[in-house]
Amino acid sequence: AEDTPSTDPAPAGAPADPCSVEAQVVQELLQEARQSQEQPQGGSGPPISLPLQLPDKDVATEPLPTPQDYEAVPVGQFGLAMLWGMGWRQGQGIGRTFPRVVQPLEHRPRPGGLGLGAEGA
């Protein structure tokens, strides 16, 4: 009776057969794919609508930028100009829930050829 093979899965301490684990994963993925095809698309909630324009802003009435406007911004200040265009102002907090002033992270370039984890010379 000891020599008959067991139909039970591997004992708790023994490693699982990789082929059977892969087969189980494939079966679960196929079952999940079948279930997603049977269910209507879009999930269970109502559709979400996103407004394309803010209700208090009419883009058609705003003046269009000219090439001179773009040339007036130095290349080194382009990011700052973008922030200003998005409503940011010096000394003003950011965020809707917890508006606070946050110190920016300064970029410190590494010496040439040194990547992540390398110690500076």
Give a brief description:
Its main location: nucleus. The chain has three helices and no strands. It has 121 residues and is an all-alpha fold.
Report the mean per-residue pLDDT as an integer. 74
Estimated share of beta-strand residues: under 5%
Structural class, from secondary structure content? mainly alpha
Helix and strand sequence: HHH
Q: Indicate the overall shape.
A: extended
Count of alpha and pi helical runs: 3
- Let me know the number of strands: 0
Main beta sheet: none
Q: What's the quaternary structure here?
A: single chain
Determine the N-to-C terminus distance: 70 Å
Whole-number radius of gyration? Answer: 30 Å
Low-confidence stretches: none
Helix content: 25-40%
Describe the structure.
The chain has a domain at 66-90. It is built from 3 helices and no strands. It has helices at 18-38, 67-71, 78-85. The relative contact order is 0.04. The mean pLDDT is 74.
